[in-house]
Amino acid sequence: MSDKADIKVVIVDDSDFSRSIIRRMLIEEGIEIVGEANGAEAALQVIKSKKPNIVITDIVMPEVSGIELTERITKSYEDISVIVVSSLSQEHIVLEAIGAGASDFIAKPIQKQQLIDSLEKIITQD
């Protein structure tokens, strides 16, 4: 990936384990993680202060879903792309995530190459 230095990621998942898996994959690729959050409200605070260009979020979280978080991010920050990851990968859920403004949808368990390919695709579109 040629533009790794330009990628600043926030990881949002209520599962510490899931966040750690994504964190490890990104660190192995030299991608900067500027913040993490275990829910939507915390994520919005991190996003506001850390100014990432990509947010990776789960769908199923307490309080606010990743779909609603995606809508909030894409309405408020046109320069931030969202990748939705979820074990819920039925077609209507994927379409709902994309409809909310997600740039990509990745089914769990996440495959590292699929995540890296998604990040590369987003960065080269900018």
UniProtKB/TrEMBL annotation:
Keyword annotations of the record: Phosphoprotein, Two-component regulatory system
Regions annotated as coiled coil: none
Source organism superkingdom: Bacteria
Keyword Phosphoprotein appears in the UniProt entry: yes
InterPro entries: Bact_response_regulator, CheY-like_superfamily, Sig_transdc_resp-reg_receiver
Residue ranges occupied by any Response regulatory domain in the UniProt entry: 8-123
Modified residues (4-aspartylphosphate): 58
GO process terms (BP): phosphorelay signal transduction system
Protein name: Response regulator
